[in-house]
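Dear colleague,

Following up on yesterday's call, I've attached the two folding results inline so they're easy to grep. Please treat them as preliminary; we haven't cross-checked anything against experimental data yet. The first protein's sequence and structure tokens come first.
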Amino acid sequence: MPIKGVPTAPRDFGGIRRYGVAHVIGAVVVIGAAAVLVTFQGVRDRDAAVALAKKWDVQGPPCPAMTEAQFNAGHESAPKTFDYDGTTFGRFAGDVSCSDVKDKGGKGLGTDKVCQFTSPATLTVASPAGRFFFVPAPGHPATIRIHKDIPACVMASTFTLQSE
């Protein structure tokens, strides 16, 4: 609101102009470069996840499973226990190697826990879904994949102490 008696100068609207064509072109170039880099990194990460999933996808016959009562009645034990990301694994003997693997062959958004055992004899898994018991027998390797807290065990493994 002008003050009475004070002359007002005409407004210069040229000073308000803040963005020119150069600014718009620069913004488009920066956004385009960022999109290319994000896409490149996403493809590279997905390819690495697919390769890891293939490495840890072990096929074999299913491990014999038991109930907790059968496991305890047979005087089975799994004294070597460890916690892996909120899931407790137990084994009688042997060595173990675990990894987080993207589900759906490395292309999914979820993550499965996979543990490979050299010769566990007995295996126990305690997850939020419950307690599970497997007896692959002495001398047999085994692999356990935990998908949505439910374990699946196969009597095969690519893990050896030499492969670490």
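Below is the second protein, in the same order (sequence, then structure):
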Amino acid sequence: MKTSDGPAARPLLLPRLHAALAGGHAGIERILVRSEGRPTAKALHDLRVALRRTAALAKLTRGIPSEGDGELLRKAARDLRRALSPQRTYEVSCQRLQARFRRDPAKRATALVLSRLLERQAKDPRKVPRQALAGPLSSLRRAFAAREADLSPQKSAPLFARDSRTEKKLCTKIASRLERKRRKLVREGVPTAETLHPTRIRLKDLRYALEFVKGVMPGVTELLPSLKSFQTAAGDANDRFELSRLVEALVVRVPRTRRGGAESLLPILSKDAERALKRAQQQARPVLERLSAITLTFESSDTAR
């Protein structure tokens, strides 16, 4: 759509936010429906990603239309994701351990013993008790309903005008918050083994926040693929470090006849993690250079309309 005095105006963000929330809510409910009973590893992964996206969007747009709005949704999505995290960690580690030594006859049997111990921990109902998830899930549904109602075009039609103060406020908040996230990642630099996990979390937060303004904020569409590649590499390294730590803790539970074999896996897993970290660091450098060279802001001609 073109205005009489210039190029196409920036799409309104409030309707976009309402649609994104409704779509995210529906997506989470679809995952829950298809994973009735015990969720598969894929469903669990998809659910945690959807919850992290929801929390990132709620955090990015909190305080709209009123102070504190969106904070309940952010916390509810975070709490449910955290309740699911231990099960996901064990399942990913189990899969990686089985795959790593599948073609190594000398170590495969020991790896399977450790894998079965991990499987038992993943299936232990104490790790993710169903009743413990009921509360966070109910809170998430209530928070979604309240947030969608607050931003409903039918309820708050004046907010959706192009020149509304709320629209301008949302635009300003988003640009400011994205800039802070960008600067923080750049300041922290290439991750080390010690900073890998927090850098990865901040990277996800920035990427999922930027997805909301894809096609609206200049430079974002071109930036997202490199952020995703960096996130994938950082996630792989983090998973490998977690696997190494879990196996180290499990060694004492392995039958004595296999304990030496279990201990012999540790240097291999540690080297795998270090190699994965180097790959993540290689991915990080060009991404951080790109982030250093841009400013995450809306075009002034758009924000003025």
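For the second protein, one point worth flagging: The first strand starts at residue 2 and ends at 3.

Best wishes,
A.L.
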